[in-house]
Amino acid sequence: MIKTRFTEMFGVDHPIVQGGMQWVGRAELVAAVANAGALGMITALTQPTPDDLRKEIARCREMTDKPFGVNLTILPAIKPPPYAEYRQVIIESGIKIVETAGNKPQEHVDEFKRHGIKVLHKCTSVRHALSAERMGADAISIDGFECAGHPGEDDTPGLILIPAAADKVKIPMIASGGFGDARGLVAALALGAEGINMGTRFMCTKESPIHQLVKERIVANDERETELIFRTMRNTSRVAKNAVSTKVVQMEKEGAKFEDVRELVAGARGKMVYATGDADEGIWSAGQVQGLIHDIPSCAELISRIVSEAEAIIRERLDRMTSVGKRQAAE
């Protein structure tokens, strides 16, 4: 078993997190992750109303007695959701772990901390990680350029971003973006992180509440099957490459503004992808890690495999390298 500051702080067996994913972070997936000893997150804004979130938390509790959290993502919106009401439901429901992401979450962090809730803040740069640390976050999820969703505008891949953040951030930090197997976990630990966050990999599990055809599409895709949309609007988002995302990128090159692509990128269309299995129905998130995903295991199988293979890499491959070196030096 791999113990880190992160597993100790958040009371989980394994240093693996299933972070927030719009339309995907539902009770059945989160409970399966929790039951396997990792940390799952219900995505608050997937639920249409705060009361629906209350019911989803209760549904998850019926399926697990292990720790799980809730993701609350704060992003610019034409009609912002009632964040304070969602936050209140999280507090009233007795949730003890929250993943925040997006715009400065100071008021949310303050309120969560007041109620003894641990806050894991996801960010895409060292400066934002340090800002979240000053704000009172308990831990950081540092998100590299490889990730699905919003990679920020710095384009810094994990291989640089993780150790750069580890050099400066004092609180526990997990690595996000591009992680899907044991090699990634060992690499993250070597780079200074205390665990990993996986999104796309957890989409492609038996308990993931999305259509089987989408899971099969992820398995079939390689690492090149993503597009970066909204680059010209400085609100970059990495999504699966399909007819819609390719069209949006082309329209942006021709000078399109958000109003011109609004219908193409509508969240309702993306939601339909997961419901119908038609991967070209709308925009849906997926990371470059698709190139490392070759099967659709249960969450228990996936987590057990990652941890056991990571231990084997550390104990056998890496230790053997140093042991061989020591023997040769002695000779």
Automatic annotation (TrEMBL):
Transmembrane segments: none
Keyword Nucleus among UniProt keywords: no
InterPro entries membership: Aldolase_TIM, NMO
Molecular function GO labels: monooxygenase activity
Keyword tags: Flavoprotein, FMN, Monooxygenase, Oxidoreductase
Classification via SUPFAM superfamilies: Inosine monophosphate dehydrogenase (IMPDH) (SSF51412)
Protein name (record): Nitronate monooxygenase
